[in-house]
Amino acid sequence: MKVLKIAFASLWSAIPLMGLYAIACAVATFIENDYGTAIAKTLVYNTLWFNILHVYLLITLVGCLITFRTWQRKRYASFLFHLSLIVIILGAGITRYFGFEGTMHIREGEKSDFIYSSETYLNIIAQKGNYQESFHIPAHLIAGQTLKKELSVFGTPLEIEVQDISKMSANKKDMTSKMVLNLNFHGGNEKVELIGGIGLEGKPVMLQSQDEALLLSWGIRKIALPFSIALKDFQLERYPGSMSPSSYASEVEVIDDRVKISKPFRIYMNHVLDYDGYRFFQSSYDSDEKGTILSVNNDPGKNMTYLGYALLILGCIWLLLDPNGRFRRLGFFLKSQKILCVLVFSAFSFYPSYAQEDLKKTEMMLNNLKNTSAEFARQFDDLLVQDYGGRIKPINTLATDLLHKITKKDGFLGFDNTQLFLGMMMLPEDFQKLKMIKISNPELKKLLGVEGGYLSFREVFTPDGVYILQNYVEEANIKKPSARNTFDKDVIAVDERINLAYMIYTGEVFKVFPDTLGSNSWHQPLQAIQLALSQNNKQEAQRIGKILQDYVKGFSMGVLEHQWGQALEALDELKAYQKQFSPDLFPSDSKIKAEIFLNKNNLFKYLIFPYLLGGIALFGLTLFYIFRNKTMHLRWVSGFYTILAVLSVTMSVALILRWYISGHAPWSNAYESMLYISWATSITALVFFRKSSLAISASLFLSGICLFVADLGFMDPQIGNLVPVLKSYWLNIHVSVITASYGFLALCFMLGLMTLLMFILRNEDKPQIDQTILSLSAINEMAMILGVFMLTAGNFLGGIWANESWGRYWGWDPKETWSLISIGVYAIILHLRFLGLKNMPYVLATASSVGFFSILMTYFGVNYYLSGMHSYAAGDPVPVPVFVYVMVAGIALLIALAYPKRKLAFPALKKIK
């Protein structure tokens, strides 16, 4: 009985199982990156041993609830939280065994009443007279695997044995293979070779035996639907002046002869078609843009899974509020301690500088523009323009956004962003020679024959005017996001920068003339003149032409003769024109000034130094008091708390302003998520640990580091429109929760390092260091509880978002898989204390320091090393930064040096009366 209890109802089995599960998932993500999703499913996700692991975890979870007697001990919050995990696993099991996914391909003017499965089968269709039997044997098989199966075909035994499988391509992601079968039917043996493979549509082979015919194939199978979908029109929208797609949608019609209905529907991202238990969502399209590919999902486990999510979130909240829960008792313990808090860190930074390119023959014009147009550019800043999303904004915002996308920095070659925008639009011949388009991919540089980090607009065209990247761009865009490698993604990124530069050179982005008929559309100059002429409004056409003529002449005089008066007059006329024809869209002067203020004053960058300096100062002060064996005066803690509060308020104002300007929550991309993590870290100490100098110093440090990382330049800081999949209210819920959890767990990382340092400094003559270690451990565990709850809730809320956007709530995408791995890692850390280990402060410090690497992999590693829907620049391996090796070595050294002085137990926590 004791053995059974240990094996199925104790943490001695549960913790290793969670570790094994996390390792299996991690290995699977790398298999998927190298060999594709199908192989990852074959070797891990869809295997019997992985399913058994799920069942074992479920049994152990139930067993632990029983042996720990959570219900009998009135641990209702803990019981509800762990019960939710049981419900979620059961819901996932129902989906796994009773649901399915597939794809539907339809051409314009045609309809389809079947889908192709996402699973791979050995398909056998038997025909005898007018009778037919079908068999579909799961066959996710790769080279070296075999299969034996016995069937009854029209009452006659059919023995099937897979004797050999061999790949037909050296490409490791090309799954085309040959399967050699041995069939025993009607007493005779038949050897059959099938060409197919995992995720492929196999070539059928026909066998005739007496009066029966067997049709065999190896690959995906057709699944008949009780209704059909007709594609009326496939619509692909491209960015103006570009071949790059901005969005695509399918106008379809659901035809169900059973109930005699015909229902039109438009399928696009975040707009899923639900019908008769099936979900259809836009996935991809044909290269000729005349066909659509829809992903299809049928998930009977969804309701149970959603119930589990709801119970989980309720359990998290209850555990935090429970008076006798671990979180509240740790807080009570901290209040009873009178300790000093320390933060140990080191940080250094550098900002890359770029030498000014040789401007050759255009140097004089460019220098004149740079040196004489500052005042004109300042007044040009608040001219309004309409972007392609329909938003009216100052030209300064447009210039800042576009030029940062193109050059990946502000103040390129000493130009103000607006000056650079003006130059590109008014002096295109000169600026097209200037190397200003950012490029980083070595393979792409070699293809274009360029060196350095920038290329000119002219370098991407042949002497005949042929766009060199055209075929590469088309090939990359047709691929699904998860199938794109590093080269594909970099090609798309460079193509976007080239297209943006083209739109500035041609004036496509200069949509400054409102429609005279009162619509909300604004037009670029030539369009405005053509529209006025088409409406027989020659007077307005002449007025627009006069404004343009005065502006062009005035600009030329400004650059050549340093006389900007006529250009300023033309600018005033243009502003008056805008107010006359679009008064309702015209924002207030205060809003325009606020937006320009945020553009020109990068508050997030300015906060880096105060955050880091505050952390350094508090560290030095607390270290001084610790070694003097004195208690820090409360006014010092209050002073640094005030500094943190001021910085947090400033950060909040900047984020709110960014939210106000963009029209969406400021956590929609990598740059904004780093800002949000910094803000969440500040708020964590501000709200939860306001009397702890340790938490305040750690918060200051981490907030500064996050802002520093955001400012390094490889993240995109400009405000832009959301891609279709992000235009969902679930973005605000999912991303805000899960990103905030990174802030808590980063705090745990720093607290762990600090605790290890305190262990190294332990001395019998300084008992106050032991008190500091215990308080560090308590704060560490509290922050970890909050972080894990938010990470868990955020991950599963992301499942809801995925279900609303893509028609499925879990697909083993590397990002979501690594979030699950991180949950498992931190769940293990939080449960280590139940194993009765001695020296828990040392164990917790070590585990929280090492465990944070799972978060780094989730946040950075997946984005840049693994392919998937969440990737930024991934697919092929890229060099691991040197600082990662230094970081690993430093942490290992701290752990080793602290080990000899590890002997310190955490006291039992008292119940709160």
What is the beta-strand fraction? Answer: 15-25%
Which descriptor suits the 3D outline? Answer: flat
Please mark out the parts with pLDDT under 50 across 5 or more consecutive residues, or reply none: 338-361, 720-727, 868-878
- What Rg do the Cα atoms give? 32 Å
**Helical proportion, percent range:** 40-55%
The number of E-state strands comes to: 22
Counting DSSP H or I runs of 4 or more residues, the number of helices is: 29
The strand order across the widest sheet is 13-12-11-2-1-16-15-14
Mean pLDDT: 79
What separation lies between the terminal Cα atoms? 37 Å
Q: Main beta sheet: strand number and arrangement?
A: 8 strands, antiparallel
SSE-based structural type: alpha+beta
Keywords:
eight-stranded antiparallel β-sheet, 29 helices, single chain, four-stranded antiparallel β-sheet, 913 residues, alpha+beta
Characterization of the model:
Helix 2 runs antiparallel to helix 4 and helix 23 packs antiparallel against helix 24. The strands form six sheets. The protein has an eight-stranded antiparallel beta sheet with strand order 13-12-11-2-1-16-15-14. The two termini are 37 Å apart. The chain is built from 29 helices and 22 strands. By secondary structure, it is of the alpha+beta class. About 5% of the residues have low confidence. The protein is 52% helix and 16% strand.
